[in-house]
Amino acid sequence: MVPVLGAVVGGAFDTTSTLAIASLAKKTFLEDGVAIGDGTVIDKKVLEVVPEENN
Fold first, then answer.
1. Which of 17, 18, 23, 51 is the most exposed place for a label (fewest CB within 10 A)?
2. Number of neighbours of residue 27 by Cβ within 10 angstroms
3. Environment class of residue 31 by beta-carbon count within 10 Å: exposed (0-12), middle (13-18) or buried (19+)?
4. pLDDT at 54 over 80
5. Using CA atoms, how far apart are residues 8 and 2, in angstroms rounded to an integer?
6. What is the pTM for the complete model shown?
7. Are 35 and 25 in contact (CB under 8 A)?
């Protein structure tokens, strides 16, 4: 009984936390760019991935 109850509680917690993370990600990563929280959206054209230099 304990493993089954643990699976149900763990599954419910995992589902709730994943939905919260997904909701925040949808609000942050927009099609136009990245929202930084104060109404400002950084245009995705400005964001650029820079390769890391080997030292």
1. 51
2. 10
3. exposed
4. no
5. 10
6. 0.67
7. no
